[in-house]
Amino acid sequence: MALERQVNIWRGNSTPPTIYHIWIFEDSKLLLYNGTEWIVFIDDITLIDTLNKIEGRLTELEADLLELSNNTVNGKSIRDNPVLDGGDLTTKLSGTFIDGTVSIANTLLELDTLLTTQIIE
Q1: 62 and 37, same structural domain?
Q2: 119, 92, 121, 89: which is closest to 105 by C-alpha?
Q3: pLDDT tens digits for 31-54?
C-alpha cells in the first residue's frame, strides 16, 4: 500500500474509483484496499453513524466558512485579511470640530490644523 497519499471517503455499493479511498460499504462497514483486494477493517454501525454525523457537520462548517469569507469590514473583504487604519474608521459621533462621517485620520488632521499656532505678522 502506498504511503503519504490523500485519502478520500467513498460511500456506496459500487467499487470506489481509486484505491486511495476509505469505502463505506452498505452503510455499516469500512473497507481499505490492501494492495490486492478491498478488506473490511471496521464493521461497526455506531462508528459509521458517528462518521456520517461528522461528515454532515463538516459540510455545514464549509458552508458557514464560505458565507463568512464573503463578508466585508468597512468595504474591505475579510478574505483579503485587511488591516484597518484611521482612514477606514469613523467615530459616528459629531461635535463642533468632529464630523462623524469623516474618517478618524482626516478628523485628526483637521484638529491638528486647528491646534497649530498661527503667527500673525
Answers
A1: yes
A2: 89
A3: 999 999 999 988 877 877 888 899
Helix (H) or strand (E) holding 38: strand 38-42
- Asked if the structure places residue 95 within a domain, the reply is yes
User: Is 51 a member of any domain?
Assistant: yes
The closest alpha carbon to 95, from 111, 82, 80, belongs to 111
pLDDT tens by residue, 48-94 = 788 889 999 999 999 998 888 888 887 888 888 888 888 888 888 88
C-alpha torsion angle, residues 77, 78, 79, 81 (rounded to 10): 110
76 within domain boundaries: no
Structural domain count of the chain? 2
